[in-house]
Amino acid sequence: MFNIAKAFRSISIAWSGIITLIKEENNAKIHLASTILVIVVGMNLGFMAIEWLWISLAIAGVWMAELINSALENITNMVAPEHHPLAKKAKDFAAGAVLVMAIWAAFVFCLISFPHLWMRLVFSN
Ligand SMILES: Nc1ncnc2c1ncn2[C@@H]1O[C@H](COP(=O)(O)OP(=O)(O)OP(=O)(O)O)[C@@H](O)[C@H]1O
């Protein structure tokens, strides 16, 4: 039978994972600042629904990549606390995944915001 209390507990645990990430990981603080900045800029420039769809996908993608990267980092640290070439590979691959998502997110943001900025410039004169 569906247990609503268990479902809420799972959500609460997942949320606390995100909070721990923000508290402990420097990159997550950068993602948080970028997320807030993008939302503020998007609201200011008046992004349309379809544009918010892409922006939100990009933001969620970066957060997902960072969460998975940090999970893999922790598992790697547990399995191989000493220096190991495979541990290095695992961490570097996971970090690469975050970089790929961050570059794509920056591309999406530029692609969406530049035409808005351009229109602002043209019609402000
Ligand atoms: N056990 C290890 N064996 C070999 N190389 C490692 C090991 N641990 C870390 N490294 C190398 O050092 C780099 C930095 O590792 P670290 O654990 O500090 O993560 P990080 O990249 O600083 O992540 P974050 O800043 O998100 O905490 C890794 O990307 C990897 O190249």
UniProtKB/TrEMBL annotation:
**EC number assigned by the record:** 2.7.1.-
Organism superkingdom = Bacteria
GO molecular function (one): kinase activity
Its placement in the membrane is given as: Multi-pass membrane protein
Similarity field:
Belongs to the bacterial diacylglycerol kinase family.
Give the matching PANTHER family: DIACYLGLYCEROL KINASE
What is the protein name for this chain?
Diacylglycerol kinase family protein
